[in-house]
Amino acid sequence: MRVGPCCLAATALLAASGCGRPSPIVAADGRLEIVISGTGEVSSLGSAGIDCGTDCAATIDVGADVELVATAGPTRALAGWDGPCAGASDTCTFTFTGDTTIEARFGFPLTVATTGAGTGLVTSDSGVLACGAICAEVYDEGATVTLLPTALSGASAFGRWLGACTSGNACVLEMDEPKDVVARFDARGRALAAWTWGDVNDDSVWQMDVDATSGDLLVCGFYDGLVDFDGSGAVDSRARDGFVLRRTPNGDPVWKRILRDPDNDATDEVRACVFDGGNGVTVSGQRDSNNGSGGDYDVTGDTTPEVSALATNADSIDGFVARFDADGVFDWISATSGLQQTGDNADSVTALAAGGSEIWGGGDLPAANNNGYVQRYTANSGSPQTPANEVQIGGTNSQGMEVRAMVRGANGDLFFTGYFDTQITWGTEVLTSGNGSRDVVVASGTATTATPRWLVGFGGNQDDEAEAIAIDTTLGLVAVTGQLENDVFVAILALDGNVELFRRFDGPGDDAGRGVAWLPDGGFVLAGEVSDGADFGLGPIATQGVDAFVARFDAAFQPVWVHRYGGDQSDQLRAVAVAPDGSIWAGGDFRGVMETGGDPGTLSSNGGTDAWIVRVLP
């Protein structure tokens, strides 16, 4: 130590002044403040004096060690600390260095797991979560979390959400309570869920449609007997009655309607159903007037006819078109009239297409030289519609033509398919079938008037028929499927009628395509029935009898997978539809015990053929 001049004084003076010794260090202090986000408390151990809830600040000596403990409120957990505390441990220890603010964030836990035979990963939009088997994270109260599923192999695909997530691909959650989520990944083509209904008599699904906005499913067909469609109680048919069901994207019931003649021996069926451009549902089919009930018709299933004086032919089966609003409230019904009412024969509206304010129906006219027809309605609410622009397809040399399915293009043009026998005339074009048998026909007419645009036909030496048609307005393509010489076929046509692709899938038995739908990725899916040995390009299919199938093709029209559903009796799928998220729905009928290869593993009929629908992993 250096001694300066001041230190040359007396020793007493040195002692009094402190000269020659360093000054003592006086400890400083600072303010520690706790901020709480969410529901919880923070307290300190030792002498720091923090008890927040009530006392959220304290004066602390600089250099002191501080230990804080977070206690979450009911159902909550600590999401994390901000400040010198880090991580999500309930305890935090640090050395106090001066004025400091620490935030404790409390929130709700989110647990995510994966399941199923496939492999996949769930991530969050924030990047915090990346779950293979199971993981958990705590999110601030009120935070919004988006979960995204990703399959980890080409053979796997995301199937569905379970738990707090209900539908769709991306799952958006608001963290207002603890939530558990399970993402299911499975093998492509696997049945994710299936429903069935029926009695000892025959029941079937004829057609399906999916709403492009809500993703809701529409299912229609017929049933015979005492049937519980949705767990709300059995409904007894008069004889064979028609039905239409609306279900959520997960298959949960929304509403059902029964359509029938009030006579006990009538045969009524709903053959087609679509979501129409008027934010409603339109259905069509046949109604039985054979037993003198005249124009009375029940369109809700409450046994009381809502409609009377409906145009009809005595002792015949007549076609109809009916409309309901989005909630299933009956709007109007129209009997097939004019061209159709030329005799006491069986008429039916077997096909529907909707878009904008127009609804088109089509079918066959046994009493009008066996010609097919199309006719236009409007999707407006109000009184029963009178069909306009009724146009026959066939001609004087026709031995039969039926419109089996139809769709509308983006500009309203009409595209329809079915079969013709011997000869067909459409505008100036004439087709003649091979060897006097039935051939496939595909045709197009203009919007509003159905003025003929083009006509295409193809066939072999046996009876050949098209059963379904689908349009992809983005690709500008139409897909058609059916049966060609007892094999499944698919034809892809441009909107001008040019055939872009034709494939026939050989098999030794009696096979048929019944449904076709485009997928969001530009591929398509087929459904129908096959027997043992049918081959879609991935090897022969082994069946126990006649089994239902769904086959997926990619955007290059190459097969991706084929899945069989069936038992030792006759099973089939008559319809297929694709939801906005790409999930596949199919429906038809089966007999006996059918293996689905998914959930549930088997379905059992009640004696006859039972109706069934299945959601398939794409």
Description:
It is a single chain. By secondary structure, the chain is an all-beta fold. 1% of the residues lie in helices and 54% in strands. The chain is built from one helix and 47 strands. The chain is elongated, with a radius of gyration of 35 Å. Residues 1-27 and 337-345 have low confidence and may be disordered.
Biggest β-sheet, characterized? Answer: 7 strands, mixed
Task: Output mean pLDDT.
Answer: 86
Low-confidence parts: 1-27, 337-345
Coarse shape: elongated
Helix content: under 10%
Proportion of beta-strand residues: over 45%
Task: State the distance separating the first and last CA atoms.
Answer: 87 Å
Q: How many extended strands? A: 47
Radius of gyration: 35 Å
The computed structural class is mainly beta
Helical element count?
1
Entry keywords:
elongated, 1% helix, 47 strands, disordered N terminus, mainly beta
In short:
The chain is mainly β.
Element layout with pairings:
Elements: H1 11-17, E1 29-37, E2 40-45, E3 51-52, E4 57-61, E5 65-72, E6 77-82, E7 91-95, E8 100-115, E9 120-124, E10 130-131, E11 134-140, E12 144-151, E13 156-163, E14 171-174, E15 179-187, E16 191-197, E17 204-210, E18 217-223, E19 226-227, E20 235-236, E21 241-247, E22 253-259, E23 269-275, E24 280-288, E25 317-325, E26 330-335, E27 348-355, E28 358-365, E29 371-378, E30 388-393, E31 401-408, E32 414-421, E33 423-426, E34 429-432, E35 438-445, E36 452-458, E37 465-472, E38 477-484, E39 487-494, E40 499-505, E41 512-518, E42 524-530, E43 547-553, E44 559-565, E45 572-578, E46 584-595, E47 602-616
Parallel strand pairs: 1-8, 8-15
Antiparallel strand pairs: 1-4, 2-3, 2-5, 5-7, 6-8, 8-11, 9-10, 9-12, 12-14, 13-15, 16-47, 17-18, 18-21, 19-20, 21-22, 23-24, 24-25, 25-26, 27-28, 28-29, 29-30, 31-32, 32-35, 33-34, 35-36, 37-38, 38-39, 39-40, 41-42, 42-43, 43-44, 45-46, 46-47
